[in-house]
Amino acid sequence: MTNSAPPRKSSDKPWRTEGAPEEQPKPPPGGRRVRGGWWSLILAALVVFLIALLVLSLYNKGDEPTISYTEFSKQVDAGNVSKIYAKGDAIQGQLRKGRDKPQGDGTYTKFRTERPTFADDRLWEHLTENDVTVTAEPVVRQRSLLANLLIALAPMVLLVAVWVFIARRMRSGFGGAGGMLGRKAPPRPVELEPGQERTTFDDVAGIDEVAGELSDVVDFLKNPDAYRRMGAKMPRGVLLAGPPGTGKTLLARAVAGEAGVPFFSASASEFIEMIVGVGASRVRELFAEARKVAPSIIFIDEIDTIGRARGGGSAMGGHDEREQTLNQILTEMDGFSGSEGVIVLAATNRADILDPALTRPGRFDRIVNVSPPDRGGREAILAIHTREIPLAGDVDLAQVARTTPGMTGAELANLANEAALLAVKRGQDRVTRSDLSEALEKVQLGAERSLVMPEEERRRTAYHESGHALLGMLQPGADPVRKITIVPRGRALGVTLSTPDADRYAYTEEYLRGRVIGALGGMAAEHVVYDMITTGSENDLEQVTNIVRGMVGRWGMSERVGRMSALPGDAQQAYGLSAAPQTLDSIDDEMRRVVDECYEEACRKLRDHRGQLDALARALLENETLDEADAYRIAGITRPAKDTET
């Protein structure tokens, strides 16, 4: 079974349909006007044909002058005539040298003349004496009447083609300039391909609580009469909000497939065109098509493209194309159009910037947050995405799920695919545990680079990564170290991978300080061993800054700043300073204090455990990569007991 969207069968429609009954095209509105237009077309074509024929006839005469017979005789006697053609008394000829035209406007070489019937000038003898060739073909060629007729038909054919094109656009209901400048004809829904199965909740895993919230929509679409008898109204819209890759689109398709109703899906950006008003027109068409086959579901992906809060700096007045499209969606969902039985699902990863009119009751009544799956959900998602992948006996999906906290369904699908690709490259017939492990490293850490480093820089990198790993092992409550490597991956010269045994949803100050100390371990190790630091800590410092800024400015973990959120999210910061300058100065001082304390503690711990640091560095230089068990054994530290999820 495939979860991909059905192919778009017509390039004219800005949405896709699934499970909708096939409709026969209806006769175009205003058919009499179209038939009456044929008479106008015939009359216009006839006028164009006559004008073209007249013009061709005028230009068919050519520019050969008609000269007097006396002049012709003089030219023959002078030996300037090369050849002639005679038909009756009419003579056509060509001169050897050009002569001035009788009217005085240029010269001529070809000419026409008429021999008088009373002439008795022994013309043949003169022609023979002066070597004049008498040809059997006309010297001056002219197009025949048939050729003129055919050429005159060309503009008429072009006129008919243009008229038919415009007539078809008008029959589709889009006459005028709007139809010619990008508005697209409303298509008829298409049936799902025969034998193709629809997506259901069986294809969705890891977000059971979200599927439970959407089961009300499914039940209403299956049994609408029961709700109407009770006087209950189903929400007009359901907004699926969550990070990218969490399965919002798949959920919407599963709702439609579970209920067995037609499903119309479109991206919000497909409604926007350069011509103002086209987006609103497309929204009307989409809702009209959905109402024809109601009950049905409309799904609009990335609705924040057109649903941003109005009145911002990006808008250019109330007639902006994006705002008109949004206004039309609001009107359709508000019930003025009678959208009975049509439920709108929308997806976004920026629910905080949507217009309040869009999320009020009566439009998107429900906002369902789709979060990354927990450990059990990740295991179920991996089971779905490996259904068609042959797995070796040593593969433990539960262990893979335990080492992938925070990964979304799309990332897990990519992980399974990367493992399968790796198995094919190795010529295997099954995906092994090693394939999944290396695929996870590639997804999380980046692909390996064939970079040859100088020995001294390689040694410094080994101490840098050993500092991260050793502090991660020593710090109470820190995430366990999974792997250490000095093989260059992505932009990093080395990587230390630490992930928790169980998913975390709230963090203590002690845990966050431990993460800061661990992140500063690389710089601290370089300082302790070499008494110098390098640029290799750039990413570590960015991570430290983000954590400490949240601790001090957002999560109330500073006595000096207090229990307040002085640095709200980026969406609110765009309107200026979020706190007084004195508060911002206090936050800056507290951040420096926390980072300095953590750095001093990191250096102290590494000095106290210098032997373990050297042992890890030597092992890395020999093996390049250490897994979890080897790292703890070489450091002489007992691996903490694994957390259990409740």
Description:
By secondary structure, the protein is α/β, with parallel strands linked by helices. Helices cover 46% and strands 11% of the residues. It contains 23 helices and 13 strands. The strands form three sheets. The chain has a six-stranded mixed sheet with strand order 1-7-8-9-6-10. The protein has a four-stranded mixed sheet with strand order 4-3-2-5, with helices on one face. Strands 12-11-13 form a three-stranded antiparallel sheet. The longest helix has 29 residues. The protein is elongated and about 135 Å long. 32% of the residues are buried. The N terminus is likely disordered.
Identify the notable features of this structure and list them briefly:
4-stranded mixed sheet; alpha/beta; 6-stranded mixed sheet
Going across the biggest sheet, name each strand in turn: 1-7-8-9-6-10
Query: What value does the average pLDDT take?
Result: 76
Give the helix/strand class. alpha/beta
Residue fraction in strands: 5-15%
Number of strands: 13
Principal-axes shape call = elongated
Q: State the helical fraction.
A: 40-55%
* Helical stretch tally: 23
Largest sheet: 6 strands, mixed
In whole angstroms, how far apart are the ends? 33 Å
Low-pLDDT parts are 1-6, 27-35, 173-195, 313-319, 571-576
The radius of gyration over CA amounts to 42 Å
Q: What is the element layout, followed by pairings?
A:
Blueprint: E1 16-18, H1 31-59, H2 69-77, E2 81-87, E3 90-100, E4 107-114, H3 123-129, E5 133-134, H4 145-171, H5 177-180, H6 208-222, H7 224-229, E6 237-241, H8 248-259, E7 263-267, H9 278-292, E8 296-301, H10 321-333, E9 342-348, H11 356-359, E10 364-369, H12 375-385, H13 397-402, H14 409-425, H15 433-445, H16 455-474, E11 481-485, E12 495-498, H17 509-519, H18 521-530, H19 538-553, H20 570-573, H21 581-608, H22 610-623, E13 625-627, H23 628-635
Parallel strand pairs: 2-5, 6-9, 6-10, 7-8, 8-9
Antiparallel strand pairs: 1-7, 2-3, 3-4, 11-12, 11-13
